[in-house]
Amino acid sequence: MERDNGAGPVNDFTLPSPAKLNLCLHIVGRRPDGYHELQTLFQFLDYGDDITFRPAEEDDHDIHLEPSIPGVADEENLILRAARLLAGTQNQKLPGVILSVDKRLPMGGGLGGGSSNAATVLLGLNHYWQLGMTLDQLAELGLQLGADVPVFVRGHAAWGEGVGERLTPANPPENWFLVLKPACDINTGKIFSEQGLTRNTPRIKIAPAFEGDASRYRNDCEDVVRKLYPEVNQGLKWLSQFGPARLTGTGACIFGRFPTESAARIIWESKPSGITGFVAQGVNISPLHTKLTELT
């Protein structure tokens, strides 16, 4: 399969597509276009999906997703959209690729699974096709796919502003987290359109370090979500017995912070039946970037 830049073939490789948490999410205003102005602290988890990249047949120049993700049409699939967007920036014939995803993150959980998948595809195909695009270029492309994609592309925990795309690197403590997924699915648009949503939280000038009193920081979506989704309310009540518990994004996932893995796992073992989740460590450098460094 020809590469106009003269680069050699790339073998199969697998990259992580990590989850993120919104350690806080403040809504500080609403723009004329209807989007909300946010301030949020993103941190990655050492847990997520995996995406594998395999060369297609020699005369095949298409992008394939095998198998497809159930219930998600190709035109809505961020994996395919990211791959096609990146391919569309090139004026050369590109080798075909087969993408496959090992899905662990719940869809619609507030963990950024779709955005993370898109970022992993952008960085992975930049490596596979040996395009040499910069993180700035890839983050700009990613913003066309979603406001959370740039933070995954850049790969560093960050204080996010605007709709979440203006990023300042941050280094919150790398605590352990118990992440739980109540048995419900939440529509983000519904939450942001609710009349009772707080939209006037005062702006913070400096990114929080989450040292000392973390109660200053909250998720402004949480009250509305708790009222509309009893499963989330019940989950937060249960988890709050063991320390501060919070919603990530618009949910449905909730999380509690713990100083050690063993402390989080003890609580995990006692979780209510019918609720799923996992234990993971917060990390300030994305596992995606760590793995890419090993490949290059």
What features would you describe in this structure?
This protein is α+β, with helices and mostly antiparallel strands. Helices cover 28% and strands 26% of the residues. The chain contains 9 helices and 10 strands. Strands 1, 2, 3, 4, 5, 6, 7, 8, 9 and 10 form a 10-stranded mixed sheet that branches. Strand 3 (63-65), helix 1 (78-87) and strand 4 (97-102) form a beta-alpha-beta unit. Helix 1 runs parallel beside helix 2 and helix 2 (113-128) packs across helix 3 (135-143). Residues 1-8 have low confidence and may be disordered.
Shape: globular
Distance between the termini: 21 Å
- Give the helix/strand class: alpha+beta
CA gyration radius, whole angstroms: 20 Å
Unreliable stretches (pLDDT < 50, length at least 5) are 1-8
Number of strands: 10
Order of helices and strands: EEEHEHHHEEEHHHEEHEH
**What is the helix fraction of residues, given as a range?**
25-40%
Regarding quaternary structure, how should these chains be classified? single chain
Note the total helix count. 9
Residue share in β-strands: 25-35%
Q: Please state the average pLDDT score.
A: 92
What's the story with the biggest beta sheet? 10 strands, mixed
